[in-house]
Design brief:
single chain, seven-stranded mixed β-sheet, 10 helices, about 20% strand, binds (2R,3S,4s,5R,6S)-2,3,4,5,6-pentahydroxycyclohexanone
Length: about 350
């Protein structure tokens, strides 16, 4: 059974570091996600510090570095990876660069936490899987933070303990308040559905054999050209059906719900929780919905990065609950089939290469 993030958080108080000093992290890319990670390593992660930063926009890197004592800026990702004062690398650059930067980290023998996606297509992701296998060590963690969400972990543990019996259906809902103009159906797959695609690997631990897209009526709030909502249906090898209802222009807030239906019971996570208010004025009853994924998953991101740092410090490099290079490859293969299913009739098969030993 995999490590519980709450346990990981508890370990944070007494990090199991075997290095003589904090893990020195090199950050590639300090846009929205990279800057968020720098802030969490600076303020909330134990046993680590940011030592080297690069960004495509040098002034952005300099601004973040100025707020991060002990860090310095270099011009290129290659310099981050090669730097002597970098023990581990966090990649938060645009997805198109992830394959090459991850391969360079493996070649340098340095552990790497790469934001999703691992690569832009299955062939490139498989290159990373093969390079890591050839190196004979584990280096690659992939940033699917939901695996470190406390409710995700609770559901996974209940399933693994047999509490829900044999899994039959996994019903997912994924809603964003808004997306930027230009967001298209393909981005629905690679940017958003990719999280549920990883949830299939995480919860069910079995291959997806086919995928089908069902297109309902589109909301008038969708950006020009986007079909929104979309419904994706995945079929696994043992016959579990996964539904993913994706709706990204709700104009309401960020919601992620997951229901696992098993032969002995059904269990749902991501329901509205927290404070519920009855307002006499206006006769309203309800609570708050976060506007985007950062407040919703901040604890999961913290637990993910802490678990990674702990794994780097103890030499295992990849935390037990983390997505691996193989998970990144599987996700890329399913995304590619899902993209094809946007315009295909019926179920599109998913083909996987053999997993290198
Ligand atoms: C965004 O890029 C993310 O990764 C969020 O986690 C996801 O929920 C959202 O739909 C994406 O646009």
């Amino acid at each position: 059974m995999s490590e519980n993030p709450t346990t990981a958080a508890a370990q944070a108080a007494t990090p199991q570091t075997s290095l003589p000093q904090d893990v020195r992290v090199g950050i590639i890319g300090v846009g929205r996600m990279g800057a968020d990670h720098v802030e969490r390593i600076r303020g909330r992660i134990k046993g680590a510090r940011v030592s080297v930063i690069s960004d495509y926009l040098r002034e952005t890197a300099e601004k973040v570095s100025a707020e991060t004592p002990g860090s310095r800026v270099v011009d290129t990702p290659e310099e981050v990876i090669a730097a002597e004062d970098v023990d581990a690398i966090l990649i938060a650059s645009p997805g198109a660069f992830h394959r090459d930067q991850t391969l360079a980290a493996i070649a340098a023998g340095k552990p790497v936490l790469c934001e999703k996606p691992l690569a832009m297509n299955p062939q490139d992701a498989y290159d990373v899987v093969r390079a890591e296998a050839a190196s004979g060590a584990s280096y690659v963690s992939l940033g699917f933070m939901r695996r470190f969400d406390a409710e995700y972990a609770e559901l996974k543990d209940a399933l693994d303990a047999g509490e829900l019996g044999t899994p039959l259906l996994l019903n997912c809902k994924h809603r964003n308040a808004t997306v930027l103009p230009g967001f298209n159906d393909t981005m629905m797959v690679y940017d958003s559905a990719v999280h549920e695609i990883d949830a299939i690997s995480y919860f069910l631990e079995e291959p997806v054999v086919s995928v089908q897209t069902v297109v309902p009526r589109t909301t008038e709030l969708a950006p020009e050209g986007l079909h929104d909502p979309l419904l994706f249906l995945f079929r696994t090898e043992s016959g579990v059906i996964v539904t993913d209802e994706l709706w990204v222009s709700t104009n309401a807030g960020y919601e992620v719900r997951t229901e696992l239906v098993g032969s002995k019971g059904a269990s749902t996570i991501g329901q509205a929780s927290g404070r519920v208010t009855t307002q006499l004025e206006g006769g309203r009853w309800g609570g708050d919905v976060p506007l985007d994924f950062r407040p919703r998953f901040v604890a999961a991101y913290d637990a993910e990065v802490q678990a990674w740092i702990n794994a780097v410090a103890d030499g295992s490099n990849v935390a037990p609950r983390s997505a691996t290079a193989w998970d990144g490859y599987v996700g890329a293969a399913i995304c590619e089939a899902t993209e094809r299913s946007l315009t295909a009739d019926g179920e599109v098969p998913v083909a996987l290469e053999a997993r290198p030993s």
